[in-house]
Amino acid sequence: MPLSAAQSLAMGELLRVAPAASDLAERFGNAGFKLALVGGSVRDALLGRLSADLDFATDAKPAQTRATLDKWADAIWETGAAFGTIAAKKGIVEPVTVEITTYRSDVYQDQSRKPEVEFGESLEGDLLRRDFTVNAMALELTTPQPTFVDPYGGLGDLTLKLLRTPSTPERSFSDDPLRMMRAARFAAQLHFEIDGPALQAIGSMKERIAIVSAERVRDELIKLLMSDGPRIGLSILVESGLAEFVLPELPKLKLEIDEHHRHKDVYEHSLTVLDQAIGLEARVGGPDLTLRLAALLHDIGKPKTRAFIAGGGVSFHHHEVVGAHLAKARLKALRFDKQTVEDVSMLVELHLRFHGYGTGEWSDSAVRRYVRDAGSLLPRLHVLTRSDSTTRNDKKARALSDSYDDLENRIIELSEREELESMRPDLDGNSIMGILGIPPSPEVGKAYAYLLELRIENGPLGVDRATEELKTWWGNRA
Q: Which 3 state secondary structure label does DSSP give 53?
């Protein structure tokens, strides 16, 4: 399929805004090598989305690529050289990052977690090994004029908004099983559909994802969750059965009925909460992985805590505590960093705290505890709690929103009178040791915790009253 005038203009614009491509083409051509822009760079240009990060394919071997880049780049990374990739950066004010990869084909053996890399001989062969036809287009730069290369119909699929593999999906997904997750991710990012044979292959080959490292699965899941349409990708993971191997807690929610009986199931409710949290992300500064993970996982404790109530109905007592443990275990298994694991599990544990106070007015001590327990997660907890209201009853929805507005106003009012964000006892550890005449020991920590509880319950006490309370507590310990 030939390029339209608009698409030809897009290719020209890509080269105009990325002069590095022309510079590199001249260098590689003079050295006797071929060089082509490939993959996402070409796809995004045709979609009208230009990027400063460029991917190239070449017939040069990694050492030859390294030598060709030597006097061009300000920084070069060879960490991917074993896989044929050399990365480089040029410029400081407006830096451009490039990855140049030798033509190759990756093949996973049945039980291998790492691909066997074989270098190829042609651009068409390299494009055949790519995940989807829309990523298997190239702009050959070392020809007399830049030449658009599309041997597998990527341009037509781009027009149809279709994800199709260049080779058979069975071969493609067998060569790299992570491509099954990547299909869901691209569907979420680009709002494309997966073609029938590829979708069927995912369903029949889903177990093969088990050979892929947890780190690669994690990175793909993050990209999916941080896309504009994560619900699309998550639905594909669940409906294809792939989620059973990468995020099994999610499909398990489909069997659980929400205790309010106002949702099709907890699975749909969780996706709605995720959608609503994304809609409120401006409150936390923009797209936020921790918030999105917490929204998706906040009810995963329900399957294990479901209990049927005599006379009808279902309860999920303490599902937030169970869910926090499950979230922590799953995120650890996916090799998420420690901070993300802790933050997400804490948000899951706290997501019902607001409802625990009912509709009555919050006491000052309850507000202080809420702020203390949430800590730096408070802005995210605000968004998660608001997003967790998915009732179709407009009156109830307004009442919940108004009630949470009142809570946030109480926090603001109390913060103006007290230092809620850095809530501490009126006496520090040194003061406690001086007053009680004791050395550093666990007793100091217990005294500090006691004074902190008094601070939360009563507000600032002042040094004199805090000293009196500390002496009384110490004397009563005998």
A: strand
Confidence (pLDDT) at 331: 98
Which H or E run includes 191?
A: none
The torsion defined by the Cα of 305, 308, 312 and 314, in degrees rounded to 10, comes to 10
3-state SS class at 317: coil
How many CA atoms, within 13 angstroms, populate the side-chain half-sphere of residue 25? 19
What was the pLDDT predicted at 422? 67
Domains annotated on the chain, with CATH:
5-153 (3.30.460.10), 161-247 (1.10.110.30), 256-422 (1.10.3210), 429-475 (no CATH)
163 vs 157: CA distance, rounded Å: 7
Measured in degrees and rounded to the nearest 5, phi and psi for residue 106 equal -105, 135
What strands, in cross-sheet order, belong to the sheet with 147-149? Answer: 75-77, 85-90, 96-102, 53-58, 35-38, 138-140, 147-149
State which of 48-62, 241-255, 309-323 shows the largest mean pLDDT: 241-255
Q: What is the pLDDT of residue 248?
A: 96
